[in-house]
């Protein structure tokens, strides 16, 4: 397993991160979830990502259970705060109250004294940035958080956070951003990635497989295969159906000979492509079965030549989304905190 620095920080992360959105505590049974984490550890993955909102806290609990007995210093645990975790007026957002209370709750569920990376899950335009950043700074000083990150923030929002941190003399600046990023969804490339590269902020790219679409298992004109995310329990089918469409599925199938040329499975090609992009520190994968973890880890250390990259772009063509405004339009937290 290859490791990279998270941005310009000193923290090393495995180039493949194991995450449990839509799986642990929701669509994957407990024993299967524990087996996937064991497979990740056996494959050399040391970085694990979750969030307080995933499965209403059950995802953090399962990850904590799966890592019990593992030497704490040998893994990097990341979690997030912002999205609603209850019905109370302060059970959401990035206020000082919610950030600190949510951190303590996450630590209890994970069964650890600290998290290596604490991320603002979305931007909160109802709370002053200074309040949020000072709350994060206090958690770092208390030893409960090692590094700070954000997820799905626009370039302007990240720039504002860096400027406010400088004005306040905060030394623990943002070191990571976690955006959706894959062959099909590249909206962070025009503005977010260039800013982050300049400022030493690493990308933790989630959905490198585009909800499994880039594995090629969803075929045009056919029902989703049994056991796939599109047929699972929980919210997963709702998310995957947003990206299923005949023209897209037909185009993705044309990537199969490209993967064959590179000696990779389609899943490995997709993960390797993401890891090849500038500024990406790690690609975040999920899994419902241990063999999926093992396959995806096969992308670690793969080098794609220019011909393969060219064929990917030519094959996907106008289906690639690069509209920079969609980061803001689709990912900002709505006033009613829906979605």
UniProtKB/TrEMBL annotation:
Belongs to the shaker potassium channel beta subunit family. It comes from the Bacteria. The keyword NADP applies. Transmembrane segments: none annotated. Gene3D superfamilies: NADP-dependent oxidoreductase domain (3.20.20.100). It comes from Plantactinospora sonchi. This is Aldo/keto reductase family protein. Coiled coil: none annotated. It holds the Pfam family Aldo_ket_red. Keywords: NADP, Oxidoreductase.
